[in-house]
Automatic annotation (TrEMBL):
It is an enzyme of class 4 (lyase). PROSITE patterns: ILVD_EDD_1 (PS00886). Its EC number is 4.2.1.9. Pfam families: ILV_EDD_C, ILVD_EDD_N. It comes from the Bacteria. Residues 45-358 form the Dihydroxy-acid/6-phosphogluconate dehydratase N-terminal domain. This is Dihydroxy-acid dehydratase. The keyword Iron applies. Belongs to the IlvD/Edd family. Residues 368-575 form the Dihydroxy-acid/6-phosphogluconate dehydratase C-terminal domain. Keywords: Iron, Iron-sulfur, Lyase, Metal-binding. One of its GO terms (molecular function) is metal ion binding.
Length: 585
């Protein structure tokens, strides 16, 4: 399509508004100072933002600094004008106290840019965990034409001939170090081996999950998410993405046309099939709230639980990003799900076609990497949602429950899905690191580890700490995974079967606040319950006592943003959004 818009472009309000020559001249002149011409800015060409999430502080997304050149080429080829700008960095592994503190900050910043500057459409450069939801949340709020360009995973990592996957290798290295099998330097080398190139995590952690789900949502071109960062196809799809956004502006194809309830249901189904991260419900629910689609935490179990795990990728399976890409990526998974009627095929995507049209003819390139529905890695791979006197909701990824874990905890023939354990309670990650190896806690295989004070308010942004390793003295005995429960999050690269994202959190009056070390707790995975085994009277007494002491105590804020977010953030089950932001749609 040519650059002859049928309707006035949004950017013309700034750059070509004869009704207001004074302001137009002011808006225009400074954008000419680096060499743009009046013809470019006043000639009816779509002005396309490139929301740049890469920087030296954000190595996972740093490849976007180069990719943006190909995006610009694509935008120019279709008669658009690119304007690149920075997004507040959100580096998962570098930001203290936690990168998720900044998801909503980057969202707010991007909303202001998209709303307040002369942009007709935007390319969202995504990758590291929170960059994808932050960008999509902002696109949802402002609702101008937007398209996702994933940065792609790193190449496969190898350690001593074995695949070494992002994050997953850290858990393994830490266990080997605790057992004295490797030195400090070997531990550093082992972990670094998982990061051989630019790109985001190469496991099906939160980054690969969220980029795959952006594609399932219809917000990126087909096949975009899985292409490894250094592959030539990555540069090629950057070019195609730049071309496509210009036409999206001419077609006025907006996020609200794409991110519908049907699209979100597709996302939930796809998340189970790929073995997606437990962070996905938080971020996807947040995007839904900003675009105004009803989506609840219960929808995740109702729509997603019975879906089988098809993608054989770490942490739930074996392979890494390169094999997944070669096997067909998200379109091959969707095609397989479509054969079983699990996808709303009519949901529209950014290329103007439906997801059904995009994926129907795609075949699986490697049947061991992407399994058929008939030979899945696991049946019923979605999340379950638990409730009880400890919390109103918490989620569990049942697909990562190992056979040893099942044998140890879920083998009572009379009650195969329930177990009772003795609680050992930690107040935040510092308390945990301090005391986990203390023999006085008497942690054994009947212990359930609890982590509280780590929700969006308690540990601003919600810490990724619920998956706790067992103490060194148990690791030495070969016991790796104890049941863990908490009001924080868990790394998407962790293979622990934790119960997490408990809402409300202790700091917001949740039941975890009254739990004491030594309490008996009963978990029933079949009934979906988790309860402290104390009487209602005792529960009421403990609650009254807590209130008498001013409620659950948590550390003071260290920065202005921590304080601001804490004053208005919602719980994990509802997307951890800033409550006042939801009404702007
Ligand atoms: Fe950035 Fe995993 S740490 S993608
Ligand atoms: Mg993470």
């Amino acid at each position: 399509m040519s650059a002859s818009p049928s309707k006035k472009l949004r950017s013309q309000l700034w750059f070509d508004n004869p009704a207001n020559p004074d302001m137009t001249s002011l808006y225009l002149e400074r954008y000419l100072n680096f060499g743009l011409t009046r013809e470019e800015l006043q000639g009816g060409k779509p002005i396309i933002g490139i929301a740049q999430t890469g920087s030296d502080l954000s190595p996972c997304n740093r490849g976007h600094l180069d990719l943006a050149h190909r995006v610009r080429d694509g935008i120019r080829a279709m008669g658009g004008v690119p304007l690149e700008f920075p997004v507040h960095p959100i580096q998962e592994t570098g930001k203290r106290p936690t990168a998720s503190l900044d998801r909503n900050l980057a969202y707010l910043g991007l909303v202001e840019v998209l709303y307040g500057y002369p942009l007709d459409g935007v390319v969202l450069t995504t990758g590291c965990d929170k960059t994808t939801p932050a960008c999509l949340m902002a696109a949802a709020t402002v609702n101008i034409p937007a398209i996702v360009l994933s940065g792609g995973p790193m190449l496969n990592g190898y350690w001593k001939g074995q695949l070494a996957g992002s994050g997953t290798v850290v858990w393994n290295a830490r266990e080997q170090f605790a057992r004295g099998e490797i030195s400090y330097d070997e531990m550093m080398d082992m972990v670094a081996s998982s990061a051989p190139s630019v790109g985001h995590c190469n496991t099906m952690g939160t980054a690969s999950t969220m980029n795959a789900l952006a594609e399932a949502l219809g917000m990126s071109l087909p096949f975009c998410a899985a292409i490894p960062a250094p592959y030539r196809e990555r540069g090629q799809i950057a070019y195609e993405t730049g071309r496509r956004i210009v036409d999206m502006v001419h077609e006025d194809l907006k996020p609200s046309d794409i991110m519908t309830r049907e699209a979100f249901e597709n996302v939930i189904v796809a998340c189970s099939a790929i073995g997606g991260s437990t962070n996905a419900p938080i971020h996807i629910n947040a995007i839904a709230r900003h675009i105004g689609v009803e989506l609840s935490i219960d929808d995740w179990e109702r729509i997603g639980h019975k879906v089988p795990l098809l993608v054989n990728m770490q942490p739930a399976g074996h392979y890494l990003g390169e094999e997944y890409h070669r096997a067909g990526g998200l379109p091959a998974v969707v095609a397989e799900l479509m054969k079983h009627g699990l996808i709303h095929e009519g949901a529209k995507t950014v290329n103007g076609k439906s997801i059904g049209e995009n994926c129907r003819a795609v075949t699986i390139g490697d049947q061991d990497v992407i399994r058929s529905f008939e030979a899945p890695l696991k049946a019923e791979a979605g999340f379950i949602v638990l409730k009880g006197n400890l919390f109103d909701s918490a989620i569990m990824k049942t697909s990562v429950i190992s056979p040893e874990f099942r044998d140890r905890y879920l083998s009572d023939p009379n009650d195969p899905e329930a177990f009772v354990g003795r609680a050992v309670v930690f107040d935040g990650p510092e308390d945990y690191h301090h005391r986990i190896d203390d023999p006085a806690l008497a942690i054994d295989e009947n212990t359930i580890l609890f982590m509280r004070g780590t929700g969006p308010i308690g540990y601003p942004g919600a810490a990724e700490v619920v998956n706790m390793r067992a103490p060194d003295y148990l690791l030495k005995r070969g016991i790796k995974a104890l049941p863990c429960i908490g009001d924080g999050r868990q790394s998407g690269t962790s293979g622990s079967p934790s119960i997490l994202n408990a809402s409300p959190e202790a700091a917001a009056g949740g039941g975890l606040a009254v739990l004491k070390t030594g309490d008996k707790v009963r978990i029933d995975l079949r009934k979906r319950t988790a309860d402290i085994l104390i009487s209602d009277a005792e529960m009421a007494e403990r609650r009254a006592d807590l209130q008498g002491h001013g409620g659950y105590a948590f550390p003071a804020s260290q920065t202005p943003w921590q304080e601001i977010q804490r004053s208005m953030v919602d719980q994990l089950s509802d997307g951890m959004v800033l409550k006042p932001a939801v009404k702007y749609q």
